[in-house]
Protein backbone atom coordinates (compact mmCIF):
# COMPACT_ATOMS: atom_id res chain seq x y z
CA UNK A 1 0.00 0.00 0.00
CA UNK A 2 1.34 3.46 -0.85
CA UNK A 3 2.45 5.75 1.94
CA UNK A 4 0.59 9.05 2.18
CA UNK A 5 2.29 12.41 2.60
CA UNK A 6 2.03 14.05 6.02
CA UNK A 7 1.33 17.50 4.57
CA UNK A 8 -0.49 18.86 1.55
CA UNK A 9 -1.40 22.25 0.12
CA UNK A 10 -4.85 23.32 -1.01
CA UNK A 11 -4.23 26.11 -3.51
CA UNK A 12 -7.32 28.30 -3.54
CA UNK A 13 -8.19 29.21 -7.12
CA UNK A 14 -11.75 30.35 -6.52
CA UNK A 15 -10.90 33.99 -7.17
CA UNK A 16 -9.67 33.07 -10.65
CA UNK A 17 -11.04 29.76 -11.91
CA UNK A 18 -14.17 30.22 -9.86
CA UNK A 19 -15.06 33.85 -10.50
CA UNK A 20 -14.11 33.85 -14.18
CA UNK A 21 -17.26 31.91 -14.99
CA UNK A 22 -19.50 34.08 -12.81
CA UNK A 23 -21.02 37.04 -14.58
CA UNK A 24 -21.76 39.42 -11.69
CA UNK A 25 -18.49 41.23 -10.99
CA UNK A 26 -17.49 40.83 -7.35
CA UNK A 27 -16.21 44.18 -6.02
CA UNK A 28 -12.50 44.37 -5.23
CA UNK A 29 -13.27 45.07 -1.57
CA UNK A 30 -15.07 41.74 -1.28
CA UNK A 31 -12.28 39.90 -3.06
CA UNK A 32 -9.85 41.41 -0.55
CA UNK A 33 -12.10 40.26 2.26
CA UNK A 34 -12.19 36.76 0.74
CA UNK A 35 -8.39 36.66 0.50
CA UNK A 36 -8.04 37.96 4.05
CA UNK A 37 -10.50 35.45 5.47
CA UNK A 38 -8.94 32.56 3.53
CA UNK A 39 -5.57 33.60 4.91
CA UNK A 40 -6.99 33.79 8.42
CA UNK A 41 -8.44 30.29 7.92
CA UNK A 42 -4.92 29.05 7.22
CA UNK A 43 -4.75 29.06 3.41
CA UNK A 44 -1.24 29.97 2.30
CA UNK A 45 -1.43 29.69 -1.50
CA UNK A 46 -4.01 31.68 -3.41
CA UNK A 47 -4.43 32.35 -7.12
CA UNK A 48 -5.91 35.83 -7.02
CA UNK A 49 -6.66 36.50 -10.67
CA UNK A 50 -5.54 36.50 -14.25
CA UNK A 51 -3.62 39.02 -16.34
CA UNK A 52 -5.85 39.01 -19.40
CA UNK A 53 -7.21 42.12 -21.12
CA UNK A 54 -9.92 43.64 -18.89
CA UNK A 55 -12.35 43.93 -21.79
CA UNK A 56 -12.24 40.12 -22.21
CA UNK A 57 -12.75 39.33 -18.53
CA UNK A 58 -14.00 42.35 -16.55
CA UNK A 59 -14.40 40.12 -13.49
CA UNK A 60 -10.60 39.83 -13.20
CA UNK A 61 -9.65 43.41 -14.10
CA UNK A 62 -8.44 44.13 -10.55
CA UNK A 63 -5.78 41.41 -10.48
CA UNK A 64 -2.78 43.74 -9.98
CA UNK A 65 -4.51 45.39 -7.03
CA UNK A 66 -5.29 42.00 -5.51
CA UNK A 67 -1.71 40.78 -5.88
CA UNK A 68 -0.52 43.94 -4.13
CA UNK A 69 -2.97 43.37 -1.28
CA UNK A 70 -2.25 39.63 -1.00
CA UNK A 71 1.48 40.29 -0.83
CA UNK A 72 0.93 42.30 2.38
CA UNK A 73 -0.10 39.06 4.15
CA UNK A 74 3.05 37.45 5.58
CA UNK A 75 3.89 34.06 4.13
CA UNK A 76 1.09 34.06 1.56
CA UNK A 77 2.22 32.60 -1.78
CA UNK A 78 0.39 34.54 -4.47
CA UNK A 79 -0.18 33.22 -7.96
CA UNK A 80 -1.88 34.46 -11.11
CA UNK A 81 -2.77 33.03 -14.48
CA UNK A 82 -1.33 34.58 -17.64
CA UNK A 83 -2.11 33.62 -21.24
CA UNK A 84 1.04 35.06 -22.82
CA UNK A 85 4.22 37.14 -22.50
CA UNK A 86 2.28 40.38 -22.18
CA UNK A 87 0.37 38.98 -19.21
CA UNK A 88 3.58 37.57 -17.78
CA UNK A 89 5.22 41.00 -17.87
CA UNK A 90 2.32 42.39 -15.85
CA UNK A 91 2.74 39.48 -13.43
CA UNK A 92 6.45 40.25 -12.98
CA UNK A 93 5.62 43.91 -12.29
CA UNK A 94 2.88 42.95 -9.83
CA UNK A 95 5.26 40.97 -7.67
CA UNK A 96 3.27 37.70 -7.91
CA UNK A 97 5.16 34.69 -6.56
CA UNK A 98 4.07 32.41 -9.39
CA UNK A 99 2.44 32.69 -12.77
CA UNK A 100 0.63 29.83 -14.45
CA UNK A 101 0.61 29.54 -18.23
CA UNK A 102 -2.16 27.23 -19.44
CA UNK A 103 -1.43 24.79 -22.23
CA UNK A 104 -4.06 22.46 -23.65
CA UNK A 105 -2.86 18.97 -24.52
CA UNK A 106 -5.84 18.64 -26.84
CA UNK A 107 -4.84 20.35 -30.08
CA UNK A 108 -8.46 21.05 -30.97
CA UNK A 109 -9.14 22.61 -27.57
CA UNK A 110 -5.88 24.53 -27.72
CA UNK A 111 -6.76 26.10 -31.05
CA UNK A 112 -10.35 26.85 -30.02
CA UNK A 113 -9.54 28.21 -26.59
CA UNK A 114 -6.01 29.64 -26.75
CA UNK A 115 -5.72 30.14 -30.55
CA UNK A 116 -2.33 28.49 -30.38
CA UNK A 117 -1.02 24.98 -30.80
CA UNK A 118 0.52 23.37 -27.71
CA UNK A 119 3.99 23.89 -29.19
CA UNK A 120 3.28 27.59 -29.70
CA UNK A 121 2.42 27.79 -26.00
CA UNK A 122 5.71 26.07 -25.21
CA UNK A 123 7.53 28.67 -27.31
CA UNK A 124 5.70 31.41 -25.39
CA UNK A 125 6.84 29.87 -22.11
CA UNK A 126 10.43 30.00 -23.38
CA UNK A 127 9.96 33.72 -24.12
CA UNK A 128 8.41 34.25 -20.68
CA UNK A 129 11.34 32.49 -19.07
CA UNK A 130 13.84 34.63 -20.98
CA UNK A 131 11.96 37.81 -20.03
CA UNK A 132 11.81 36.74 -16.39
CA UNK A 133 15.52 36.02 -16.26
CA UNK A 134 16.32 39.31 -18.01
CA UNK A 135 14.09 41.31 -15.69
CA UNK A 136 15.43 39.86 -12.48
CA UNK A 137 11.88 39.11 -11.31
CA UNK A 138 11.53 36.20 -8.89
CA UNK A 139 8.15 35.01 -10.15
CA UNK A 140 8.11 31.24 -10.67
CA UNK A 141 6.76 29.96 -13.97
CA UNK A 142 4.29 27.06 -13.95
CA UNK A 143 3.13 25.34 -17.11
CA UNK A 144 -0.34 23.94 -16.54
CA UNK A 145 -1.38 21.17 -18.91
CA UNK A 146 -5.15 21.15 -19.35
CA UNK A 147 -7.56 18.72 -21.04
CA UNK A 148 -5.05 16.08 -19.95
CA UNK A 149 -7.66 13.33 -19.63
CA UNK A 150 -9.89 14.12 -22.57
CA UNK A 151 -11.60 16.99 -24.26
CA UNK A 152 -15.14 17.90 -25.24
CA UNK A 153 -14.02 18.92 -28.75
CA UNK A 154 -11.37 16.37 -29.64
CA UNK A 155 -12.48 13.48 -27.43
CA UNK A 156 -9.53 11.32 -26.46
CA UNK A 157 -6.22 12.91 -25.50
CA UNK A 158 -3.21 10.63 -25.63
CA UNK A 159 -1.22 10.23 -22.46
CA UNK A 160 2.00 10.31 -24.48
CA UNK A 161 1.04 13.73 -25.81
CA UNK A 162 0.45 15.03 -22.28
CA UNK A 163 3.85 13.78 -21.20
CA UNK A 164 5.51 15.16 -24.33
CA UNK A 165 4.03 18.59 -23.58
CA UNK A 166 5.24 18.31 -20.00
CA UNK A 167 8.78 17.54 -21.07
CA UNK A 168 8.66 20.38 -23.60
CA UNK A 169 7.49 22.84 -20.92
CA UNK A 170 10.32 21.79 -18.63
CA UNK A 171 12.81 22.10 -21.48
CA UNK A 172 11.46 25.57 -22.26
CA UNK A 173 12.25 26.67 -18.74
CA UNK A 174 9.07 26.17 -16.74
CA UNK A 175 10.00 25.94 -13.07
CA UNK A 176 6.90 23.89 -12.33
CA UNK A 177 4.41 21.82 -14.29
CA UNK A 178 0.93 20.71 -13.36
CA UNK A 179 -1.91 18.71 -14.82
CA UNK A 180 -5.57 19.64 -15.05
CA UNK A 181 -8.70 17.68 -15.88
CA UNK A 182 -10.36 20.68 -17.49
CA UNK A 183 -13.66 19.05 -18.45
CA UNK A 184 -14.17 16.28 -15.90
CA UNK A 185 -13.09 13.25 -17.90
CA UNK A 186 -10.56 11.94 -15.37
CA UNK A 187 -11.12 8.93 -13.16
CA UNK A 188 -8.86 7.83 -10.33
CA UNK A 189 -7.16 5.01 -12.17
CA UNK A 190 -6.23 7.28 -15.07
CA UNK A 191 -4.99 9.88 -12.58
CA UNK A 192 -2.81 7.36 -10.82
CA UNK A 193 -1.31 6.13 -14.08
CA UNK A 194 -0.67 9.58 -15.58
CA UNK A 195 0.56 11.21 -12.37
CA UNK A 196 2.93 8.33 -11.75
CA UNK A 197 4.56 8.92 -15.11
CA UNK A 198 4.48 12.69 -14.70
CA UNK A 199 6.30 12.40 -11.40
CA UNK A 200 8.90 10.22 -13.07
CA UNK A 201 9.49 12.91 -15.71
CA UNK A 202 9.28 16.05 -13.61
CA UNK A 203 10.08 14.87 -10.07
CA UNK A 204 9.48 17.62 -7.55
CA UNK A 205 8.83 20.08 -10.39
CA UNK A 206 5.49 18.31 -10.89
CA UNK A 207 3.63 20.74 -8.75
CA UNK A 208 -0.11 20.48 -8.67
CA UNK A 209 -3.23 18.52 -9.64
CA UNK A 210 -6.35 20.39 -10.76
CA UNK A 211 -9.59 18.42 -10.84
CA UNK A 212 -13.08 19.43 -11.79
CA UNK A 213 -16.02 17.70 -10.15
CA UNK A 214 -18.07 17.66 -13.34
CA UNK A 215 -18.95 13.99 -12.89
CA UNK A 216 -18.44 13.68 -9.15
CA UNK A 217 -14.92 12.27 -9.17
CA UNK A 218 -12.76 15.22 -8.08
CA UNK A 219 -12.02 13.93 -4.59
CA UNK A 220 -11.48 10.34 -5.70
CA UNK A 221 -9.02 11.77 -8.21
CA UNK A 222 -7.22 13.74 -5.50
CA UNK A 223 -6.96 10.58 -3.42
CA UNK A 224 -5.44 8.69 -6.34
CA UNK A 225 -3.00 11.55 -6.94
CA UNK A 226 -1.95 11.57 -3.28
CA UNK A 227 -0.93 7.96 -3.69
CA UNK A 228 1.56 9.01 -6.37
CA UNK A 229 3.16 11.51 -3.99
CA UNK A 230 1.61 14.73 -5.34
CA UNK A 231 0.81 17.05 -2.45
CA UNK A 232 -0.69 20.21 -3.96
CA UNK A 233 -4.21 20.57 -5.34
CA UNK A 234 -6.19 23.40 -6.80
CA UNK A 235 -9.65 23.84 -5.35
CA UNK A 236 -12.28 26.55 -5.11
CA UNK A 237 -14.42 27.56 -2.18
CA UNK A 238 -17.94 26.17 -2.70
CA UNK A 239 -16.60 24.44 -5.81
CA UNK A 240 -17.41 27.49 -7.93
CA UNK A 241 -16.33 27.54 -11.53
CA UNK A 242 -15.49 24.36 -13.28
CA UNK A 243 -16.72 23.43 -16.66
CA UNK A 244 -18.02 26.21 -18.89
CA UNK A 245 -18.96 23.58 -21.50
CA UNK A 246 -21.47 21.87 -19.20
CA UNK A 247 -23.67 24.54 -17.61
CA UNK A 248 -25.01 23.48 -14.23
CA UNK A 249 -22.45 20.71 -13.93
CA UNK A 250 -20.69 20.37 -10.61
CA UNK A 251 -17.71 22.70 -10.55
CA UNK A 252 -14.21 22.43 -9.15
CA UNK A 253 -13.08 20.34 -6.24
CA UNK A 254 -14.57 22.26 -3.29
CA UNK A 255 -11.82 23.57 -0.99
CA UNK A 256 -13.79 22.82 2.16
CA UNK A 257 -14.61 19.23 1.12
CA UNK A 258 -10.99 18.64 0.15
CA UNK A 259 -9.79 20.05 3.46
CA UNK A 260 -12.16 17.67 5.24
CA UNK A 261 -10.93 14.67 3.29
CA UNK A 262 -7.27 15.52 3.93
CA UNK A 263 -7.89 16.13 7.64
CA UNK A 264 -9.57 12.72 7.88
CA UNK A 265 -6.45 11.21 6.34
CA UNK A 266 -4.21 12.89 8.96
CA UNK A 267 -2.64 14.99 6.21
CA UNK A 268 -1.88 18.44 7.58
CA UNK A 269 -3.04 21.42 5.46
CA UNK A 270 -3.02 24.14 8.11
CA UNK A 271 -6.63 24.91 7.21
CA UNK A 272 -9.24 25.59 9.88
CA UNK A 273 -12.22 23.93 8.23
CA UNK A 274 -14.83 25.56 10.45
CA UNK A 275 -13.43 28.97 9.48
CA UNK A 276 -13.50 27.97 5.83
CA UNK A 277 -17.16 26.97 6.16
CA UNK A 278 -17.94 30.39 7.66
CA UNK A 279 -16.18 32.04 4.70
CA UNK A 280 -18.20 29.84 2.38
CA UNK A 281 -21.41 31.17 3.95
CA UNK A 282 -20.24 34.71 3.35
CA UNK A 283 -19.22 34.12 -0.26
CA UNK A 284 -22.51 32.27 -0.85
CA UNK A 285 -24.36 35.42 0.23
CA UNK A 286 -22.23 37.56 -2.09
CA UNK A 287 -22.86 35.21 -5.00
CA UNK A 288 -26.58 34.73 -4.36
CA UNK A 289 -28.25 33.21 -7.40
CA UNK A 290 -25.09 31.49 -8.63
CA UNK A 291 -24.74 27.70 -8.60
CA UNK A 292 -22.54 26.58 -5.73
CA UNK A 293 -21.28 23.10 -5.03
CA UNK A 294 -19.76 20.88 -2.38
CA UNK A 295 -21.25 18.55 0.20
CA UNK A 296 -19.69 19.32 3.58
CA UNK A 297 -21.49 22.63 4.07
CA UNK A 298 -24.89 20.90 4.19
CA UNK A 299 -24.00 18.22 6.73
CA UNK A 300 -21.40 20.25 8.61
CA UNK A 301 -18.37 18.78 10.33
CA UNK A 302 -19.03 15.62 12.32
CA UNK A 303 -19.35 16.56 16.00
CA UNK A 304 -16.61 14.15 16.96
CA UNK A 305 -14.37 15.84 14.40
CA UNK A 306 -15.06 19.28 15.85
CA UNK A 307 -14.28 18.00 19.36
CA UNK A 308 -11.08 16.40 18.05
CA UNK A 309 -10.04 19.63 16.36
CA UNK A 310 -10.79 21.64 19.50
CA UNK A 311 -8.68 19.38 21.70
CA UNK A 312 -5.89 19.43 19.11
CA UNK A 313 -5.99 23.22 19.22
CA UNK A 314 -5.73 23.16 23.02
CA UNK A 315 -2.56 21.08 22.91
CA UNK A 316 -0.80 23.53 20.58
CA UNK B 1 0.62 0.07 -6.51
CA UNK B 2 -2.36 -2.18 -5.81
CA UNK B 3 -3.89 -4.16 -8.64
CA UNK B 4 -7.54 -3.41 -9.36
CA UNK B 5 -10.19 -6.06 -9.85
CA UNK B 6 -11.45 -6.59 -13.41
CA UNK B 7 -15.09 -6.85 -12.32
CA UNK B 8 -17.24 -5.30 -9.63
CA UNK B 9 -20.88 -5.34 -8.59
CA UNK B 10 -23.05 -2.31 -7.92
CA UNK B 11 -25.76 -3.54 -5.61
CA UNK B 12 -28.76 -1.27 -6.10
CA UNK B 13 -30.26 -0.43 -2.72
CA UNK B 14 -32.35 2.56 -3.81
CA UNK B 15 -35.63 0.70 -3.35
CA UNK B 16 -34.78 0.09 0.30
CA UNK B 17 -32.15 2.47 1.66
CA UNK B 18 -33.29 5.15 -0.74
CA UNK B 19 -37.06 4.95 -0.51
CA UNK B 20 -37.20 4.35 3.25
CA UNK B 21 -36.36 7.99 3.86
CA UNK B 22 -38.84 9.28 1.28
CA UNK B 23 -42.30 9.99 2.63
CA UNK B 24 -44.46 9.73 -0.50
CA UNK B 25 -45.15 6.02 -1.01
CA UNK B 26 -44.07 4.88 -4.45
CA UNK B 27 -46.73 2.55 -5.90
CA UNK B 28 -45.72 -1.10 -6.30
CA UNK B 29 -46.23 -0.87 -10.06
CA UNK B 30 -43.55 1.83 -10.27
CA UNK B 31 -41.18 -0.11 -8.06
CA UNK B 32 -41.62 -3.09 -10.41
CA UNK B 33 -40.89 -0.83 -13.36
CA UNK B 34 -37.76 0.45 -11.56
CA UNK B 35 -36.57 -3.11 -10.88
CA UNK B 36 -37.32 -4.14 -14.48
CA UNK B 37 -35.51 -1.15 -15.96
CA UNK B 38 -32.51 -1.60 -13.63
CA UNK B 39 -32.35 -5.22 -14.71
CA UNK B 40 -32.58 -4.21 -18.37
CA UNK B 41 -29.72 -1.74 -17.74
CA UNK B 42 -27.60 -4.65 -16.55
CA UNK B 43 -27.96 -4.48 -12.77
CA UNK B 44 -27.91 -8.02 -11.35
CA UNK B 45 -28.11 -7.45 -7.59
CA UNK B 46 -30.98 -5.44 -6.14
CA UNK B 47 -32.14 -4.95 -2.57
CA UNK B 48 -35.87 -4.61 -3.11
CA UNK B 49 -37.12 -3.81 0.36
CA UNK B 50 -37.20 -4.60 4.04
CA UNK B 51 -39.26 -7.01 6.12
CA UNK B 52 -40.23 -4.65 8.89
CA UNK B 53 -43.79 -4.13 10.20
CA UNK B 54 -45.77 -2.22 7.56
CA UNK B 55 -47.09 0.26 10.16
CA UNK B 56 -43.47 1.33 10.88
CA UNK B 57 -42.48 1.73 7.24
CA UNK B 58 -45.49 1.85 4.90
CA UNK B 59 -43.15 2.66 2.01
CA UNK B 60 -41.74 -0.88 2.17
CA UNK B 61 -44.96 -2.79 2.88
CA UNK B 62 -44.87 -4.46 -0.56
CA UNK B 63 -41.49 -6.15 -0.12
CA UNK B 64 -42.78 -9.75 -0.47
CA UNK B 65 -44.53 -8.85 -3.73
CA UNK B 66 -41.37 -7.20 -5.04
CA UNK B 67 -39.20 -10.19 -4.18
CA UNK B 68 -41.66 -12.43 -6.04
CA UNK B 69 -41.54 -10.16 -9.08
CA UNK B 70 -37.75 -9.72 -9.00
CA UNK B 71 -37.26 -13.48 -8.79
CA UNK B 72 -38.97 -13.82 -12.19
CA UNK B 73 -36.02 -12.00 -13.80
CA UNK B 74 -33.39 -14.63 -14.75
CA UNK B 75 -30.09 -14.28 -12.93
CA UNK B 76 -31.18 -11.40 -10.68
CA UNK B 77 -29.84 -11.77 -7.15
CA UNK B 78 -32.51 -10.40 -4.83
CA UNK B 79 -31.81 -9.18 -1.33
CA UNK B 80 -33.83 -7.69 1.50
CA UNK B 81 -33.09 -6.14 4.86
CA UNK B 82 -34.49 -7.73 8.02
CA UNK B 83 -34.22 -6.41 11.57
CA UNK B 84 -34.83 -9.71 13.39
CA UNK B 85 -35.83 -13.39 13.24
CA UNK B 86 -39.44 -12.55 12.43
CA UNK B 87 -38.36 -10.56 9.38
CA UNK B 88 -35.91 -13.30 8.44
CA UNK B 89 -38.69 -15.89 8.43
CA UNK B 90 -40.65 -13.72 6.00
CA UNK B 91 -37.50 -13.42 3.89
CA UNK B 92 -37.07 -17.21 3.78
CA UNK B 93 -40.71 -17.60 2.71
CA UNK B 94 -40.36 -14.90 0.06
CA UNK B 95 -37.53 -16.73 -1.68
CA UNK B 96 -35.04 -13.83 -1.38
CA UNK B 97 -31.48 -14.81 -2.26
CA UNK B 98 -29.95 -12.86 0.62
CA UNK B 99 -31.06 -11.11 3.75
CA UNK B 100 -29.07 -8.41 5.46
CA UNK B 101 -29.21 -7.99 9.22
CA UNK B 102 -27.97 -4.55 10.30
CA UNK B 103 -25.74 -4.29 13.34
CA UNK B 104 -24.48 -0.99 14.66
CA UNK B 105 -20.90 -0.98 15.93
CA UNK B 106 -21.72 2.14 17.93
CA UNK B 107 -23.42 0.93 21.12
CA UNK B 108 -25.25 4.22 21.53
CA UNK B 109 -26.56 4.12 17.95
CA UNK B 110 -27.43 0.45 18.31
CA UNK B 111 -29.55 1.08 21.38
CA UNK B 112 -31.21 4.18 19.90
CA UNK B 113 -31.88 2.71 16.47
CA UNK B 114 -32.20 -1.07 16.91
CA UNK B 115 -33.02 -1.18 20.66
CA UNK B 116 -30.43 -3.93 21.02
CA UNK B 117 -26.75 -4.06 21.87
CA UNK B 118 -24.41 -5.27 19.11
CA UNK B 119 -24.07 -8.61 20.91
CA UNK B 120 -27.83 -9.03 21.05
CA UNK B 121 -27.87 -8.56 17.25
CA UNK B 122 -25.17 -11.21 16.96
CA UNK B 123 -27.35 -13.57 19.05
CA UNK B 124 -30.28 -12.83 16.72
CA UNK B 125 -28.11 -13.69 13.71
CA UNK B 126 -27.32 -17.05 15.36
CA UNK B 127 -31.08 -17.68 15.74
CA UNK B 128 -31.67 -16.64 12.12
CA UNK B 129 -28.96 -19.02 10.99
CA UNK B 130 -30.47 -21.89 13.00
CA UNK B 131 -33.92 -21.13 11.56
CA UNK B 132 -32.56 -20.97 8.04
CA UNK B 133 -30.77 -24.28 8.39
CA UNK B 134 -33.85 -25.91 9.93
CA UNK B 135 -36.15 -24.59 7.21
CA UNK B 136 -34.02 -25.68 4.29
CA UNK B 137 -34.24 -22.16 2.81
CA UNK B 138 -31.31 -21.13 0.62
CA UNK B 139 -31.30 -17.45 1.60
CA UNK B 140 -27.80 -16.24 2.41
CA UNK B 141 -27.33 -14.29 5.64
CA UNK B 142 -25.31 -11.08 5.58
CA UNK B 143 -24.36 -9.21 8.73
CA UNK B 144 -24.00 -5.53 7.89
CA UNK B 145 -21.94 -3.52 10.35
CA UNK B 146 -23.07 0.10 10.36
CA UNK B 147 -21.67 3.28 11.99
CA UNK B 148 -18.32 1.60 11.40
CA UNK B 149 -16.45 4.90 11.01
CA UNK B 150 -18.18 7.00 13.62
CA UNK B 151 -21.60 7.89 14.87
CA UNK B 152 -23.61 11.05 15.37
CA UNK B 153 -24.64 9.96 18.88
CA UNK B 154 -21.54 8.30 20.27
CA UNK B 155 -18.87 10.06 18.21
CA UNK B 156 -15.84 7.82 17.74
CA UNK B 157 -16.27 4.12 17.02
CA UNK B 158 -13.23 1.96 17.68
CA UNK B 159 -11.89 -0.06 14.79
CA UNK B 160 -11.25 -2.97 17.14
CA UNK B 161 -14.94 -3.00 18.08
CA UNK B 162 -15.94 -3.10 14.40
CA UNK B 163 -13.63 -6.05 13.80
CA UNK B 164 -14.78 -7.79 16.99
CA UNK B 165 -18.41 -7.48 15.79
CA UNK B 166 -17.39 -8.83 12.39
CA UNK B 167 -15.73 -11.88 13.91
CA UNK B 168 -18.74 -12.43 16.17
CA UNK B 169 -21.13 -12.28 13.18
CA UNK B 170 -19.05 -14.83 11.31
CA UNK B 171 -18.91 -17.07 14.39
CA UNK B 172 -22.70 -16.78 14.73
CA UNK B 173 -23.13 -18.15 11.24
CA UNK B 174 -23.36 -15.13 8.95
CA UNK B 175 -22.47 -16.23 5.41
CA UNK B 176 -21.37 -12.72 4.52
CA UNK B 177 -20.35 -9.57 6.36
CA UNK B 178 -20.21 -6.00 5.14
CA UNK B 179 -19.30 -2.58 6.44
CA UNK B 180 -21.29 0.63 6.19
CA UNK B 181 -20.45 4.26 6.83
CA UNK B 182 -23.96 5.04 8.01
CA UNK B 183 -23.51 8.74 8.72
CA UNK B 184 -20.75 9.87 6.36
CA UNK B 185 -17.78 9.94 8.71
CA UNK B 186 -15.50 7.74 6.57
CA UNK B 187 -12.59 8.99 4.57
CA UNK B 188 -10.54 6.97 2.11
CA UNK B 189 -7.57 6.35 4.35
CA UNK B 190 -9.78 5.01 7.15
CA UNK B 191 -11.59 2.85 4.61
CA UNK B 192 -8.37 1.39 3.31
CA UNK B 193 -7.12 0.60 6.79
CA UNK B 194 -10.36 -0.93 8.06
CA UNK B 195 -11.20 -2.85 4.90
CA UNK B 196 -7.70 -4.29 4.77
CA UNK B 197 -8.13 -5.74 8.24
CA UNK B 198 -11.69 -6.85 7.53
CA UNK B 199 -10.51 -8.76 4.48
CA UNK B 200 -7.87 -10.43 6.61
CA UNK B 201 -10.54 -11.59 9.06
CA UNK B 202 -13.35 -12.52 6.69
CA UNK B 203 -11.61 -13.20 3.37
CA UNK B 204 -14.14 -13.68 0.58
CA UNK B 205 -16.96 -13.57 3.13
CA UNK B 206 -16.32 -9.83 3.39
CA UNK B 207 -18.93 -8.96 0.88
CA UNK B 208 -19.78 -5.32 0.40
CA UNK B 209 -18.95 -1.70 1.19
CA UNK B 210 -21.75 0.79 1.81
CA UNK B 211 -20.86 4.48 1.67
CA UNK B 212 -22.95 7.56 2.15
CA UNK B 213 -22.00 10.74 0.35
CA UNK B 214 -22.92 12.96 3.30
CA UNK B 215 -19.66 14.87 3.05
CA UNK B 216 -18.80 14.17 -0.58
CA UNK B 217 -16.42 11.26 -0.06
CA UNK B 218 -18.47 8.24 -1.15
CA UNK B 219 -16.62 7.65 -4.41
CA UNK B 220 -13.18 8.32 -2.96
CA UNK B 221 -14.09 5.74 -0.33
CA UNK B 222 -15.12 3.22 -2.97
CA UNK B 223 -11.83 3.77 -4.75
CA UNK B 224 -9.90 3.13 -1.53
CA UNK B 225 -11.96 -0.01 -0.90
CA UNK B 226 -11.27 -1.31 -4.42
CA UNK B 227 -7.59 -1.15 -3.60
CA UNK B 228 -8.15 -3.63 -0.77
CA UNK B 229 -9.79 -6.09 -3.15
CA UNK B 230 -13.44 -5.47 -2.24
CA UNK B 231 -15.58 -5.66 -5.37
CA UNK B 232 -19.19 -5.07 -4.29
CA UNK B 233 -20.70 -1.73 -3.35
CA UNK B 234 -24.14 -0.58 -2.35
CA UNK B 235 -25.41 2.45 -4.21
CA UNK B 236 -28.73 4.11 -4.95
CA UNK B 237 -30.00 5.59 -8.17
CA UNK B 238 -29.78 9.39 -7.92
CA UNK B 239 -28.07 8.90 -4.57
CA UNK B 240 -31.44 8.91 -2.79
CA UNK B 241 -31.56 8.16 0.90
CA UNK B 242 -28.50 8.47 2.98
CA UNK B 243 -28.36 10.19 6.26
CA UNK B 244 -31.64 10.79 8.07
CA UNK B 245 -29.73 12.69 10.78
CA UNK B 246 -28.55 15.38 8.36
CA UNK B 247 -31.55 16.57 6.35
CA UNK B 248 -30.56 17.85 2.93
CA UNK B 249 -27.15 16.21 3.14
CA UNK B 250 -25.94 14.39 0.06
CA UNK B 251 -27.27 10.85 0.13
CA UNK B 252 -25.84 7.49 -0.83
CA UNK B 253 -23.20 6.84 -3.42
CA UNK B 254 -25.14 7.43 -6.66
CA UNK B 255 -25.33 4.25 -8.75
CA UNK B 256 -24.85 6.09 -12.02
CA UNK B 257 -21.80 8.03 -10.79
CA UNK B 258 -20.28 4.86 -9.37
CA UNK B 259 -20.90 3.02 -12.65
CA UNK B 260 -19.14 5.85 -14.48
CA UNK B 261 -16.13 5.75 -12.17
CA UNK B 262 -15.80 1.98 -12.47
CA UNK B 263 -16.15 2.06 -16.26
CA UNK B 264 -13.40 4.67 -16.40
CA UNK B 265 -11.21 2.29 -14.42
CA UNK B 266 -11.86 -0.55 -16.89
CA UNK B 267 -13.69 -2.46 -14.17
CA UNK B 268 -16.60 -4.33 -15.72
CA UNK B 269 -19.99 -3.96 -14.00
CA UNK B 270 -22.28 -5.02 -16.83
CA UNK B 271 -24.16 -1.75 -16.41
CA UNK B 272 -25.30 0.31 -19.40
CA UNK B 273 -24.77 3.77 -17.96
CA UNK B 274 -26.86 5.58 -20.58
CA UNK B 275 -29.79 3.28 -19.74
CA UNK B 276 -29.26 3.94 -16.03
CA UNK B 277 -29.34 7.70 -16.70
CA UNK B 278 -32.67 7.28 -18.53
CA UNK B 279 -34.03 5.35 -15.55
CA UNK B 280 -32.79 8.13 -13.29
CA UNK B 281 -34.82 10.64 -15.30
CA UNK B 282 -37.91 8.50 -14.88
CA UNK B 283 -37.44 8.00 -11.14
CA UNK B 284 -36.72 11.73 -10.76
CA UNK B 285 -40.15 12.44 -12.30
CA UNK B 286 -41.80 9.96 -9.93
CA UNK B 287 -40.06 11.52 -6.92
CA UNK B 288 -40.63 15.14 -7.91
CA UNK B 289 -40.02 17.43 -4.96
CA UNK B 290 -37.59 15.05 -3.25
CA UNK B 291 -33.89 15.85 -2.93
CA UNK B 292 -31.87 13.87 -5.46
CA UNK B 293 -28.11 13.69 -5.74
CA UNK B 294 -25.27 12.70 -8.02
CA UNK B 295 -23.21 14.61 -10.57
CA UNK B 296 -23.12 12.63 -13.81
CA UNK B 297 -26.74 13.29 -14.74
CA UNK B 298 -26.09 17.04 -15.10
CA UNK B 299 -23.03 16.81 -17.31
CA UNK B 300 -23.96 13.56 -19.06
CA UNK B 301 -21.48 11.00 -20.30
CA UNK B 302 -18.45 12.44 -22.08
CA UNK B 303 -19.02 12.15 -25.82
CA UNK B 304 -15.81 10.20 -26.27
CA UNK B 305 -17.05 7.77 -23.64
CA UNK B 306 -20.33 7.26 -25.46
CA UNK B 307 -18.48 6.65 -28.74
CA UNK B 308 -16.16 4.20 -26.96
CA UNK B 309 -19.12 2.34 -25.46
CA UNK B 310 -20.88 2.22 -28.82
CA UNK B 311 -17.85 0.78 -30.59
CA UNK B 312 -17.36 -1.72 -27.75
CA UNK B 313 -20.96 -2.81 -28.21
CA UNK B 314 -20.42 -3.30 -31.95
CA UNK B 315 -17.55 -5.70 -31.35
CA UNK B 316 -19.63 -8.01 -29.10
TrEMBL record, chains A, B:
Belongs to the HMG-CoA lyase family. Belongs to the alpha-IPM synthase/homocitrate synthase family. Pfam families: HMGL-like. It comes from Caballeronia fortuita. This is Pyruvate carboxyltransferase. Keywords: Lyase, Metal-binding, Pyruvate, Transferase. NCBIfam families: PRK05692.1. The keyword Transmembrane does not apply. The lineage of its organism: Bacteria, Pseudomonadati, Pseudomonadota, Betaproteobacteria, Burkholderiales. GO terms for molecular function: acyltransferase activity, acyl groups converted into alkyl on transfer; hydroxymethylglutaryl-CoA lyase activity; metal ion binding. CDD domains: DRE_TIM_HMGL. Residues 8-277 form the Pyruvate carboxyltransferase domain. One of its GO terms (biological process) is ketone body biosynthetic process.
Amino acid sequence: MPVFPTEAVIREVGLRDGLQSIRQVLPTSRKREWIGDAYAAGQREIEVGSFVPARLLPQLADTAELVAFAKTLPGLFVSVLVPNLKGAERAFESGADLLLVPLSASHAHSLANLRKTPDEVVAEVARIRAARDASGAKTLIEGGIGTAFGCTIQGRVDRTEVLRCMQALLDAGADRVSIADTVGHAGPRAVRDLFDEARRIAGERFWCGHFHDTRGLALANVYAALETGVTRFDATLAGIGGCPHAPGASGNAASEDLAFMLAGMDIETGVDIAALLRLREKVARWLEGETLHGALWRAGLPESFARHAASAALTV
